[in-house]
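Give me the fold.
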Amino acid sequence: MGYQVLARKWRPHSLQEMVGQEHILRMLTNALDKGRLHHAYLFAGTRGVGKTTLARILAKCLNCEVKISATPCGTCHACTSIDQGKFPDLLEVDAASRTKVEDTRDLLETIQYAPAQGRFKICLIDEVHMLSGHSFNALLKTLEEPPAHVVFLLATTDPHKLPITVLSRCLQFNLNHVPVEKITARLAYICEAENISAEVSALEQLATAARGSLRDALSLLDQAIAWCPSNISLAETRAMLGFVNTDFLFQLLDHIATKDGRALFNTIHQLIEQTPDVDRLIADLLSLLHRISIQQIIPDEKNSDTIRRLATQFSATDIQLFYQIALIGRRDLAFAPNPALGFEMLMLRMFAFQPGQEKQEITTPIPSIKTEIPAADTNWNNLLPALKLSGMSLALASHCTMQSNTNNKIELFLAEKHAALLNPKLKERIQEALSTHFKQPIKLNITLTSNLLNTPADEKQHIHHQRQQQATSVIHQDQGIQKIMSTFNATLDDHSIEAIDSEL
């Protein structure tokens, strides 16, 4: 095979060629140039961020025939042999396949001998966390007191699985995900060097899909070149990656805005047919909702006409609710009978529950019970809201009716069944509230009675019952709800409907 994959062809050969990890490069550069060398280095990070590459470069820095420095010559026998994987004093071990304690003991016996060609004998153990407990025990003593000519370079994707005794004997470097901007710039540089035509937006999409792994990004670039060899476009790249056509997502939100359930279902089915990866589909929907939310808060004329239109079609509360529904739906996708049904139910929740619309349909027609109160009104139901009581004092006053209001003296009746509410301190609070309201001293008397009373509490309960009936009627008459009930042969639980009450 004459072709070499991009991930191998463009692997960095010096610290200066490394992409990202500036904090680690700075520490290593200073240590190498000042001769402050450690006998064991641990490189930790997710796949494709440069752990093994950095270890090999460090091996060159330590064994370059010119001198130990952060800038090896790259042309001497040691440098070229390490690049070609032929340097006898660089021992690379894959711990995932050599986990037995016997393998570790053989390695430790080998490193006792002096280097054959280089300045140091380098022991590079990849995926070191895969070693067995006995292997770690065998390695521990040598890590603590290694021969002067030995340097250990350990790489792992899961440092938490390493014994603390091993971690404490290593100089640890945590490699971060490579930012999308840096991956994009690197891909653009490689495309130019390879004479490959590519749109920057397509390279950004590849960088995003790589999730911080430069090696994965290069593998995706290889795949994109095979997919569209003439020009790597954004549309072709999204199709290769299985991303959703954004127009479909726009249609979903349009159908929700217009309350067109049939069109919503048709679009959902088209999406499921074209995008078998429902998790990615929901992720794209979340990204779209995020863009709309930002447009609502920080309007930007550079956004597409559709984004700007959707930002005005829905309230900020709607978008926040949709985002939360999508998040929960994505989390619960594994519990659905199948991913397609899970996505359908997610969209049905958005279709059925729009806070702005519920408020308009259910609460607007219901009149508020707050009114302007005449100063000398003898109607206790009308007077009570103006007193601004709360807590238990409001509870006591709500179960009373006014018997008389003469000569700055107010007498209230309280049904005997609520006698437990009658308390001197609560009575005093109501009296103070009356005095404040009428702007003059008021004397209050509360008398128990066995008669039936029409109290503010009774009226509030009556109004709540009316609201509940109206809310139930509005929901039963909603065309969107009727379509859902018809489609799924469902029934509506009236007890689950809660009307929004205004406070007294």
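The chain is about 50% helix and 10% strand.
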